[in-house]
Design goal:
The chain is α+β, with helices and mostly antiparallel strands and 619 residues long. It has a domain at 368-618: Rossmann fold (3-Layer(aba) Sandwich), CATH 3.40.50. It is built from ten helices and 39 strands. The strands form nine sheets. The protein has an eight-stranded mixed beta sheet with strand order 32-33-35-34-36-37-38-39, with helices on both faces. Strands 1, 2, 3, 4 and 5 form a five-stranded antiparallel beta sheet that branches. Strands 6-7-8-9 form a four-stranded antiparallel beta sheet, with no helix packed on it. A hairpin with a 5-residue loop joins strand 10 and strand 11 (114-120). The longest helix has 18 residues, at 599-616. It is globular.
Length: 619
């Protein structure tokens, strides 16, 4: 895969099924127009497909319970996503909303007569509600720590509100915007349940609860008090289920999400999955139920497994995703479909249990090899090696993932494929701190950044370098976010092992991160503790005088997760010492540049990465 091959990647997204109707959303980068395109495609049981809609970008499709209509979000040009509905037997989609900041994903009522969704409503005079530009807006008065969020922006002047729309387009605002709402579900045809911060967000909190409200509007009532985070509620088997974690105070990091249940009367919640061994992947979508249990995706040693959890709990049986990554899934109670990504495919729609998968256009992929070994303390290490063509020995790039409570997976990874196609062997470690290896594995780095995680990544690198097809004399290190932190740290403490470094959207100094990041006010204390000296010891910038190798500082201008100042401080410190350093800044991008940034910027970044490694590893 070459950088320009981004536009050849057809990636399936959300999927829906009802009887013989299976719909999947498709996304393809358009480098010429610098946007993403894709509509809904129908998938037939033999794996063939045909376009079902022809919008610029249609997604989040949901088939009504009565099987007669499909609701979905449509983005036209640079407009905001709006809610549309179309009959399943054909016909032109009708737009149901025209909201200044767009609508959220649709949730059908049980009787198929209405749709609930969440949408941000702007204050008058802001976000395009007048003809004047942002520079003419009044100042924002900020009194809380949770006042902004990466890739969203400022929050208090556009709070999300719960809405209900009828099929004739009549929209009702069910909540008033005085608190955040998310993840609505229908308890019955007249009552909704939704997620909101503890005590409706009177003060900053990381805890969430479930609240109920009449669908026609009215008083909001506490329904179930959560044990930590709460998300994705749904009704099945005469009970209310949701995903959640359990913690006290700000100790929310590196917590496995599990399946929870309560009665429809709001009775005491029960966790149905083991907190240590079962970690539900919310990015793969809303859990759903069939007659035998709840379907959801579990993170397990780099696999994203579609499992069916019995209604009374347990680890569940694996339905799909062995040595693969289930990105989305759906069932109508009899047919189960899933979007499954593999090392050589961004995703195919699988009819689970039949072996039938679709075939979307893609690119050729390089071989992926599983690696395992032991760290110096005997702890098992695990990851992957993506190999270039030929016998080698090849120059090596170790790429550390972000998070840290995330993972490299068995799914298709465009970055590793681009680097391998350019001739580099790519090492992908999942060190302690990563997700999918047990909650204790994820929490092993709390208060210990730069210790066991470093041991793990270097130990896995040694496993790769012991192979004859990897050149131990030509090794580079790179990563973004926590991976950028690790790149900076390794460059300072183990720089002799690498020829050059590419540190992207990194955390370099916890002191300023605490006050400048959207999550810094709790994240730093939760991972590093409150002692300023401990935070200093775990900050790569503290050791900048030890960095002597060529060093690329890469960042997005509008990154609010790891703000630009983290890059600037590192770059200035390196240049003042005379280190061969460069800074690359992407205008208009946030923290998610490499995954969902503008296609041209993604292409330009790939070109820059390959130029950097060509300079230092190819000679």
């Amino acid at each position: 895969m070459r950088p320009e091959d981004l536009q050849l990647l057809t990636t399936p997204g959300t999927v829906a099924v009802s009887g013989d109707l299976v719909l999947v959303s498709i996304t393809t980068p358009d480098l010429e127009k610098n946007t993403y395109r894709g509509g809904l495609h129908r998938v037939f049981p033999d794996g063939t497909t045909t376009p079902w809609t022809h919008g610029d970008r249609d997604n989040a499709q949901r088939i009504s319970p009565d099987g007669r209509s499909v609701a979905f979000l449509r983005v036209s040009g640079k407009s905001k996503p709006q809610l549309y509905v179309a009959p399943v037997d054909g016909g032109e989609p009708r737009r149901l909303t025209d909201l200044p900041l767009g609508a959220g994903a649709p949730v059908w009522s049980p009787d198929s007569s209405r749709i609930a969704f969440v949408a941000r409503v702007p204050e008058a005079g802001r976000y395009g509600t007048t003809d004047e530009g942002p520079e003419a807006e009044a100042p924002r008065r900020i009194t809380r720590l949770d006042y902004r969020f990466d890739d969203v922006g400022f929050l208090a002047d556009r709070r999300p509100r719960l809405h209900v729309v009828s099929l004739d387009g009549e929209v009702i605002e069910v909540t008033d915007g005085s608190y955040d709402v998310s993840d609505p579900a229908w308890l019955d045809d007249s009552t909704l349940v939704f997620v909101a911060p503890r005590d409706l967000g009177v003060v900053e909190t990381l805890h969430c609860d479930l609240y109920s409200v009449p669908a026609a509007g009215g008083a909001v009532s506490l329904f179930v008090r959560g044990a930590g985070e709460v998300s994705m509620p749904f009704v099945a088997n005469s009970s209310l289920y949701w995903l959640g974690t359990e913690f006290t105070g700000i100790d929310a990091v590196a917590r496995n999400h599990g399946l929870w249940r309560s009665g429809l009367d709001g009775s005491a919640p029960v966790r149905l999955t083991d907190a240590e061994t079962v970690d539900v992947e919310r990015l793969s979508g809303q859990p759903v139920a069939d007659a035998e249990g709840v379907l959801l995706v579990v993170r397990n040693r780099g696999a994203l497994e579609l499992r069916r959890i019995p209604f009374d709990g347990g680890p569940g049986e694996v339905l799909a995703g062995t040595s693969a990554a289930v990105r989305s899934f759906a069932t109508d109670g009899s047919t189960v479909v899933a979007v499954v990504s593999t090392p050589d495919s961004p995703g195919q729609v699988e009819f689970v249990g039949t072996g039938v998968r679709t075939a979307f256009s893609s690119v050729s992929a390089r071989e992926v090899v599983e690696l395992s070994g032991s760290a110096s303390d005997g702890y098992p290490v695990h990851g992957w090696l993506v190999l270039p063509e030929g016998e080698g020995p090849h120059p090596v790039v170790m790429a550390v993932h972000g998070g840290p409570f995330m993972y490299h997976s068995w799914g298709f990874f465009d970055e590793a494929q681009v680097y391998a196609s350019a001739g580099y062997a790519v090492v992908l470690p999942n060190p302690r701190g990563s997700a999918g290896y047990g909650q204790s594995h994820g929490q092993a780095v709390i208060g210990k950044f730069g210790t066991v995680d470093v041991d793990d990544v270097l130990s896995l690198l040694d496993v790769a370098l012991a192979r004859p097809d990897c050149d131990a004399e030509r090794v580079g290190v790179m990563g973004g976010s926590y991976g950028g932190f690790m790149t900076s740290w390794l460059s300072a403490h183990h720089g002799e092992r690498f020829k050059a470094a590419w540190s992207e959207r990194a955390v370099n100094a916890w002191d300023s991160f605490s006050g400048s990041s959207d999550i810094g006010y709790f994240f730093t204390d939760a991972y590093c503790g409150t002692d300023p000296e401990a935070q200093r010891v775990m900050s790569p910038l503290t050791y900048v005088e030890k960095i002597n190798l060529p060093f690329a500082v890469v960042h997005s201008e509008q990154d609010w997760r790891c703000p630009l100042e983290q890059a600037q401080r590192m770059f200035v410190a390196l240049k003042r010492r005379g280190v061969e350093a460069e800074m690359l800044i992407f205008p208009g991008e946030g923290h998610e540049l490499t995954r969902s940034g503008q296609p041209r910027h993604r292409r330009q970044r790939f070109d820059a990465v390959l130029e950097w490694w060509g300079r230092y590893l190819k000679s």
